[in-house]
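Inverse folding, one chain.
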């Protein structure tokens, strides 16, 4: 009995140590250590059309290895303000990665604009396009002034790190939810994806609720009340 108790304590200590290490790791370090194994298993799942299994594996990667890690203080090229460091926002950050050839679903941009208007004081909204600046010009106008529209591209020398860490790892569209210290609170892949037959109102509502659910973890940390969270 004593040996069993000792073994349990040792396992718990090892788990606690690994958990603590994961909490202290940077986001790029965690990706380097765990992404390869995830990709192999995930590719097999999707090749076998096991979509739900693939999503469960993604959620497991995020919850066990990425949440609690710290983003690098990336310098982004803002469409309006040239360059901005993530740390300069001084509040939680929601980053959504896009590309101009990956068309947002019906109602998606209006839903993001509404949420940004509502929570701009508490969360910094950032849309990051994997494009050159001139390719972003037209779509950037569709986002309101509460959203910072940025861009990055492989051919821009100073973008190599952020492209390697964010674009060529978890894909896009991907949502990153960071606290004010740039620690990962959550990561979600994709949006609501309403079908083509959905009405605009239904599509808008689905997108609004999906993004609001992701934002809730940041807003709760800021002590936003449940009533404020559920009021459109």
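Residues assigned per position:
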């Amino acid at each position: 009995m004593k040996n069993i108790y000792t073994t349990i304590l040792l396992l718990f200590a090892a788990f606690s140590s690994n958990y603590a290490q994961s909490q202290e790791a940077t986001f790029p370090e965690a990706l380097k250590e765990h992404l390869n194994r995830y990709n192999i298993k995930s590719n097999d799942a999707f090749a076998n059309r096991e979509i739900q299994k693939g999503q469960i594996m993604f959620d497991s990667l995020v919850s066990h290895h990425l949440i609690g890690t710290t983003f690098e203080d990336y310098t982004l090229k803002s469409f309006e303000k040239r360059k901005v460091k993530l740390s300069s926002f001084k509040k939680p950050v929601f980053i959504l990665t896009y590309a101009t050839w990956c068309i947002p679903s019906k109602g998606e941009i209006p839903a993001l604009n509404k949420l940004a208007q509502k929570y701009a004081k508490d969360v910094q909204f950032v849309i990051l396009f994997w494009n050159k600046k001139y390719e972003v010009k037209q779509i950037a106008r569709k986002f309101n002034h509460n959203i910072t529209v940025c861009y990055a591209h492989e051919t821009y020398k100073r973008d190599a790190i952020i492209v390697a860490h964010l674009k060529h790892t978890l894909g896009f569209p991907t949502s990153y939810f960071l606290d004010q210290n740039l620690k990962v609170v959550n990561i979600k892949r994709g949006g609501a994806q309403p079908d083509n037959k959905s009405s605009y109102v239904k599509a808008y509502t689905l997108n609004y609720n999906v993004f609001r659910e992701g934002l809730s973890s940041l807003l709760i940390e800021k002590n936003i009340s449940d009533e404020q969270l559920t009021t459109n």
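The CA atoms of residues 98 and 151 lie 9 Å apart. Residues 1-69 form one domain.
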